[in-house]
Every structure is written in structure tokens, then in C-alpha cells.
Amino acid sequence: MAVTTDSVAARLVREPRRATRSRQRGRRALVGYAFIAPAVVLFLVMGLYTLVYSFGLSFAKWNGFSPSWDWVGLENYRDLLYADPRLAPEIRGAALNTGLAMVAVSFGTVLIALPLATLLNSITRLRGTLRSIFFLPYVTAGIAVYYAWRYVLEPDGAVNLALRAVGLGSLARPQGFLADPDTALPTLIVIMIWGSVPVAMLLYLAGLQAIDPAVTEAASLDGAGAVRRLRHITWPLLVPITVAIVLLGLRDTMQGFQIFLIMTNGGPAGHTDVLGLKAYQQAFFQSLSPTLGVASALGWLIFLAALLLAVVNARLLRGQR
């Protein structure tokens, strides 16, 4: 009987404690929800709402000021793809430039970042200093870098002066590299590679440092030279990192247009137009023309392309595991 009474008393003591702990957990949960509520509201308003709004706008004509939309169905998409005799060729040209930039930037980044990472991995002194120097292009403010590049690429800029000084005046461009139709897009691609190499180099450096030195030493003892070690040992282990670098470069180049806007604004004569820049121009540089729907439609086409690229990215990365 005493045991039963004691167990009942102990249960009566534990139940209020459990209730107190439950209330405390509930209060902590409410505090947590209160902290994340502003971010959730901001996402719902600035993210989800604008996403749905832009999707609806892609089926309408609107200039941003008229009180109502003019619903046109799929007309905006047809105009972008083939129907508009002026806009459709511009979009195809911008898509071609975007594709060229995506491929060139992604693979150019790999071709430069891997040797730099190998060089950094092979030295011990000043490694941190060199790593900071190589990483400088990435941490420098983008707009400041773009204006600096514009300055050195002008007709009387440092690049033309340097070419003439070393006897390569035939390579100089009297109108500047950004104003020449033959060099404008390649020049921007080079600048984009210059800005994307630092992150890729650090990823490769991390991958190289993760390789067991005993493996490469054993290969050296077996008579494998540097090229064979790179081909049969180092490169296969770096393939997953390479896939990630290439796919991230493809995505960033497809969605980004800031460098094209600041440095050339699509010129000369549309030779540096890209899809993101065309969407921006259709939205904000058409006076009062009802082109916001066209801009939204183009934005959704870019989104679908990016989504397809993300699916390919996920499948390739899953296949490397």
C-alpha cells in the first residue's frame, strides 16, 4: 500500500513538471516563429506574390501605368519565338550570344582555374598570399570592376597603349575593344572568366588537397610522370568538382546580365545582347509601350531554361557520387 501511495504521489509531482516543460517548449516555439515571421512575410510578398504576378503578366500587354491589363494569351510568347518580325530575330541573336558566353565562360574557367590550383598546391611558401591575390577579382565590387575595365579598354586606354608599346599595334582597336563588333563579345567573355576563376580555383585547390599524397607518390615510384598522374589519378578525382564548376558557370552566365548592361548595353549593334539584358530592356527601356508582358514572358522562358539546367545539374552530380 505504501508503494502504491508513493508511486501515485510521484506521478502527481511529475505531471505538473511535464505540463510546465510543455508550456516552456510551446513558448520557445512561438518565439522562434515570431523571429522568422518577418522573413516569411517578406518571401510571400516579394517572392511568391511577384512570381505569380509575373506569370499572369506574361499573358497580357501592359505599360505599368494603365489601370488594366490587355489579355492576349500566348501572343507574347509567340512574338518572342517567331511571330514578331523585329523582336524574334533579336531574341534569337541574344540567345546565340548567351549560349556562346555560357560555353566559353564555363570551359575557359576550368582551363585556367585548374592549372592555377595545381600551381598553388605545389608550393608551400606564400601560398596564402598568392591565394588572396588570385581571389581579389571575386571580392572586388562588380560595378567598380566593370567601370575600370571600360576605362582600360577605351581607344586611348591601357590595353591599346600596351599593345602599341610592345610592337603589337596591329592588334589594337582604334574604336576600343568594346565598340568593335568583332571583339566586344570575346572581350566580355574574357572579363567574365577573369571574375569566375577565383572561386573555381579554390574549389580545385580544396579537391587537390583532399587527395592522399601517398597515391601520387606511389604512382611516381611506379614511373608515372606528371602528365600521367594528372590524367589517371588527379583528373578522375576532380571530375565531380569540374561538373559543379561547369554547371554553375552555365547557370550564372545564363541568368546574369549586369556586365553586358554596364559595359556595352548590348552594343555595338546588338553584338553583345543576351537574354537577361533583352528582358531588362523590354521592361524598362520602352517608354510607355505595353511591353512588360513581353519582358515577363521572356523572364519565364529564361526561368524554364534555368530549371532544365538545374535538373541536368542534379542528375550529373548524383551520377558522380
UniProtKB/TrEMBL annotation:
Where found, per UniProt?
Cell membrane
* Membrane topology of this protein: Multi-pass membrane protein
Q: One GO CC annotation, please?
A: plasma membrane
The membrane spanning regions, by residue number, are 30-52, 99-120, 132-149, 188-211, 232-250, 297-317
**Which SUPFAM superfamilies does the record match to this protein?**
MetI-like
Q: Which residues form the ABC transmembrane type-1 domain?
A: 95-313
- Name the keywords, alphabetized: Cell membrane, Membrane, Sugar transport, Transmembrane, Transmembrane helix, Transport
A single Pfam family it belongs to is BPD_transp_1
Q: Which superkingdom does the taxonomy of this entry point to?
A: Bacteria
What is the native source organism of this protein? Asanoa ishikariensis
Q: Carries keyword Coiled coil?
A: no
Give the primary localization class.
Answer: membrane
Q: Which family does it belong to?
A: Belongs to the binding-protein-dependent transport system permease family.
* GO annotation terms (biological process): transmembrane transport
This protein is called what? Multiple sugar transport system permease protein
